[in-house]
Design goal:
Strand content: under 5%
Radius of gyration: 15 Å
Largest sheet: none
Structural class: mainly alpha
Helix content: 55-70%
Number of helices: 2
Protein name: Protein kinase domain-containing protein
Length: about 60
């Protein structure tokens, strides 16, 4: 379990990989959060989207 926690910490650590990677991680986190908020909203209104695939996600 400790190894998993360390891996998660390393992947989420903005100091690893320099500013370009740090910026990419922030953007990825924001887009993922927004996407999940949207899915949660749809589900809370009784809607389900069955075609959730990377090809169908447009940024």
């Amino acid at each position: 379990m400790r190894a998993i926690q360390e891996s998660v910490r390393r992947v989420g650590d903005d100091t690893v990989g320099g500013p370009a990677v740090s910026r990419q991680l922030r953007i990825t986190r924001i887009l993922t959060r927004d996407f999940l908020i949207g899915v949660k909203y749809l589900h809370s209104h009784g809607l389900a989207y069955t075609e959730l695939r990377l090809e169908n996600v447009h940024c």
